[in-house]
Amino acid sequence: MMTVSQSLRQPALRTEGHDQDAAVDREALLGALLGTFPLPVFYKNRHGRYLGCNKAFESLLGHARNGIIGKTDADLDPHHHTEWHLTQDDVCPESGGAQHCETKITTAGGAVRDVVVNKVVLSGANGAAGVIGAIVDITEHKQAGRDLKKALEFAEGIITAIPDVLFEVDEDGRYLQVWTRNPELLAQQKEMLLGRTVNDVLAPDQAAIAMEALREAAKEGVAYGRCISIALPNGERRWFELSVARRPSADPAAATTLLAFSRDITERKQAEDAINLVRMQLLSVLRTMPDMVWVKDMDGVYLLCNHAFERLTGLAEADVVGKTDFELFDVERARFFRESDKAAVEAGECILSDEEWVISQENGQSVLLETRKVPVMDAGGGVVGVLGVARDVTELNVSRQKIHQMAFYDPLTSLPNRSLFNDRLRQMITSAVSRGQRAGVALIDIDHFKVVNDTMGHPVGDELLCQAAARLKASVRDYDTVARLGGDEFAILLPEIRQGDDLGRIAGTILERFKEGFLLDGKEVFISCSVGIALYPDDSADVNDLVKYADSAMYLAKRSGRNSFRFYSKDLTASAEERMRLESDLRRAIERGELELHYQPKVLLDSGAMIGSEALLRWRHPDMGMVPPFRFIPIAEDTGLIVELGRWVLREACETAAELNADGRIPHKVAINLSVKQFQSAGLIKSIAEILEETGCRAEWVEIEITESLLLDQKDETLHMLSELRSMGFSIAIDDFGTGYSALNYLARFPIDTLKIDRSFINSADKRNEELVKAILSIARCLGQSVVAEGVETAEQAAFLAANGCGTAQGFLYSKAVPKADIMALWLGSSMGESAASTMR
What we know:
GO terms for molecular function: cyclic-guanylate-specific phosphodiesterase activity. The chain has 841 residues and is α+β, with helices and mostly antiparallel strands.
């Protein structure tokens, strides 16, 4: 077979004309064939000169055919790889056959292209006549190869860089490929995994999780977030998170495979478990806490809350978490919560506030919460939220208010008590000093409160105090303070006094309001009060002195007839100080032997004979001498010392009565005064009986004198005690008869033996008093009672009494009260037959 070159050089067997036509035909045929060929084609002689080419070759080099024929590569492009081409052209005839070589060609546009040159030898009669070649542009192919290589290198780099394990599996979970830089994280060696399925390698429960992820990825394209636990060959168990995706494929008919990333999350899982454990412990603690606890983020969204929060708000945690205050509460309350959250964040520390929450819209029930809020910080110190803790202090607040009320307010009247009064007094004086103003202190005492308390009962007395408190508050200005200091004693602080008359007007208003009747136990009772006033700075600038001076003024008002007010004077202070001294000395008078009894004789008006005497207490003070009874008896009554003094008087008087009646001739009856407080003390009857036994005195030698007021106090108890005394043999006398406030019906009800007409009726020259004396004598005769006239000082008085039927008298006309020795002497003289009048003169 001939080669291509041989066929081109084959001599024609035709005639010369015919030969020329055939050559032309061959050239035309070759040109037509090469012109339509898309690859650049050329042919050269053995010396490297171009003999021909096609259009594609012309376009490649950028030269026309005429500019190419007869030229070498060096002629066409000095920078071309001429030497290399010549060498290859020379090698090609020598080696014979076809040759393929890869090189670079610079195109007409200046671009360097990668090409493959395919050459074959053209043979002639004398051997190789040249070469014919075709050029294939492989630039894009080589670039694609380079890109693919880079992509593969990049993929391998990623796989090498990431710690995850990458699997390729089919839909049955069969391992097709495994990539990892950490083979120790595989459940089995890579070679053992390939070809096996997930169910063959993993535990059944974990394999089920993995297969579920694969099925989801095959259906949906991706599957994320499922975690499985794998036991490694070294015995360690680790956790992995699966991210599965369906592998894309350009071939719709290709089998579906899946790519699964398996990320080691053991440390994260352990951290989550630790966090969850702490969270569960925290939640357990929060469940046991009685306080409300909640956490919000910076947007005010609740992250958690405890059971106490649920109980108080009535909202379940599931309804709270993820929501804001504006979604849970009314706008006003939500705005308040947000403002307090903001304050905590801005403060950067715990803030405390009291918040009142309405927990029942139906009945308006509310609770008071003591709330603490503190900003929550992240690891970098940034604020990420707010933690709130609230404690229900409703009952505690009520207790605090009760304690405050008990500490500073009177439980009966709800007025400030002495403690709060003293505090406000100091504030008033401080303010008065700074403003240069005057201020007043008034003390008020209810007149005869004890009578109401004892006769109508303590509940009625308490009601009187409450009504009195209301009237006092209504009598003063809004900014004045009315306080109850104790018992029936009230006090008023009067700041901003412009002139002294202001105090007088206020005191007058108080007295006027007290003139209105008090409705007590269904009865209208009229009660007055006494008011004492001291003024700052006129009287004193000392708070204690002001109270003391107002108290002195009040007692002056009482001594002046009650139902009045008095201002302080220095004489009042001196009197009060003397009273305190007398009280102190009186407490020790018995043990010091400073007390003694004097006896004033009682005589018969018709014969002048002594029939008895009245025991009267005297106090011989070591410094002040003889202290008259009117100075210390009221003190003893007020302080309760009268009970101890009365017992001493009883014993002394009974001893004297026993001595006076020792001869057994004419009886001498000793009158002894018993106070109301003695009757109110427990064991009076028993004490009297013991004294009688100790002294050897007989009851018929003693007359018990009581006041009319006793008959108004505790009537049933008084009647019982008087009846017992009468049954023991004592006679009962009413002292100072006619000066009391009671009705006369008690004379018939109580066991009364004697009426003693008060000296005020005897010493008065008023004719009306004489008529009253006659009336008393008439009443006594009707009731079968004897009468003793007190304070008889003249013979005319004695004659008047005798003429009107009075049997017995005592007074200075006969004798003053004398010591025991003197009364014994007088009695002895009287017993010897002398008249009492002559004996006592």
